[in-house]
Amino acid sequence: MDSLPLIKSPITTELEDFKRLFDSSLSSSNLLLNNVIAHIRQRNGKMMRPILVLLVARLYGAIRPATLHAAVALELLHTASLVHDDVVDESTERRGQLSVNAIYNNKVAVLVGDFLLATSLVHAGKTMSHEILEVVSCLGQDLAEGELLQLSNVSNPQFSEEIYFDVIRKKTAALFAACTKSAALSVHADDEKAEIARLFGEYIGICFQIKDDIFDYFENKALGKPTGNDMLEGKLTLPAIYALNSTADAWAQEVAVRIKEGTATSGEIARLIEFSKENGGIEYAVEKMKFYKEKALDLLHTITSGSDVCEALEAYLDYVVDRE
Ligand code: 2DE
Ligand code: MG
Ligand code: MG
Ligand code: MG
């Protein structure tokens, strides 16, 4: 079932307002910049983050201009981080489309990412809220720290679940937490409510990244086999970490170390994916994801139950966890 209409139903007009503001934020007199932005915009994302900002603002009050500027700021920062991420990961593809670095080059990708980041801060300023400006700026710091933590962990021979959660809190959950906290601040929710919103977003973000990581273990229709992209980039995610820590398989340990070093073959990666599945890695990751989903739902129900916004946020969580 397509749950997106239910998710969007309490915020249909505001989502249109968001789109207009987002479009108008991206104009420049530079031809190259406009071409790159047009390429990025072809992706037509599902706008999961702006939707979350709008829904959480509605949870606590009526959507205001500051809410829309916060949503634009966060979507721009997210877009900037993906353009830079593809440079860092040397990825040539993003969601079935060539990445900016692949079509142009790293220099163009770094500079376009910088432009998007700066434009994000312009909109954070337009909220006229120092607190929202701080949330957005600190998010930029967290994202960069998360990426650095992930990089420095490549040479760490341990496969620790604790480090995995540290990384995903910073590289993904921080963004969702910034969305929900800014949303609350944009409608003048008090500190306690803003903190509940922040934590709610953090739990959603943890679910989102665990799900994203699980995708890498399953068949990709275009490839006809699991992508294994994360392992190709030297990243071991929760299913593999669990399987490695719950068995003492010398072969798997050895391959895992080489995956981190970037010297494993694609055949070895395929076998480590199978090993992770055979040793309960997927079930374990799904269980963890559901644990955080329940925590998010419990928090949501301390604020509201039964309202249309509550139902939309419940459907949002189902979507994050069940999407294919
Ligand atoms: C996606 O992770 C990572 C997103 C954060 C990137 C942050 C950067 C630093 P993945 P996928 C590069 C900060 C950037 C700023 C402040 C503009 O696991 O599979 O690589 O989508 O995800 O490539
Ligand atoms: Mg990446
Ligand atoms: Mg990355
Ligand atoms: Mg991924």
Pick out the low-confidence regions. Answer: none
* Largest sheet entry: 2 strands, antiparallel
Q: Report the average pLDDT across residues.
A: 94
- The shape, in one word, is globular
Percent in strands: under 5%
Protein architecture, described:
- There is one protein chain.
- This protein is mostly helical and 324 residues long.
- Helices cover 75% and strands 2% of the residues.
- The protein is built from 16 helices and four strands.
- It has helices at 4-8, 12-25, 31-41, 48-60, 65-88, 100-103, 106-126, 130-153, 161-186, 191-215, 229-232, 238-246, 250-261, 266-278, 281-303, 308-322; strands spanning 93-94, 97-98, 219-220, 225-226.
- A two-stranded antiparallel sheet has the order 1-2.
- β3 and β4 form a beta hairpin.
- α9 packs across α10 and α15 (281-303) packs antiparallel against α16.
- The longest helix has 26 residues, at 161-186.
- The protein is globular.
- The termini are close together.
- The model has no long low-confidence stretch (mean pLDDT 94).
Write the layout of secondary structure elements.
Blueprint: H1 4-8, H2 12-25, H3 31-41, H4 48-60, H5 65-88, E1 93-94, E2 97-98, H6 100-103, H7 106-126, H8 130-153, H9 161-186, H10 191-215, E3 219-220, E4 225-226, H11 229-232, H12 238-246, H13 250-261, H14 266-278, H15 281-303, H16 308-322
Antiparallel strand pairs: 1-2, 3-4
Helix pairs in contact: 2-5, 4-5, 4-9, 4-16, 5-7, 5-8, 5-9, 7-8, 8-9, 9-10, 10-15, 10-16, 12-14, 12-15, 13-14, 15-16
Bound molecules: ligand 2DE and magnesium ion (3 copies).
One magnesium ion binds next to loops.
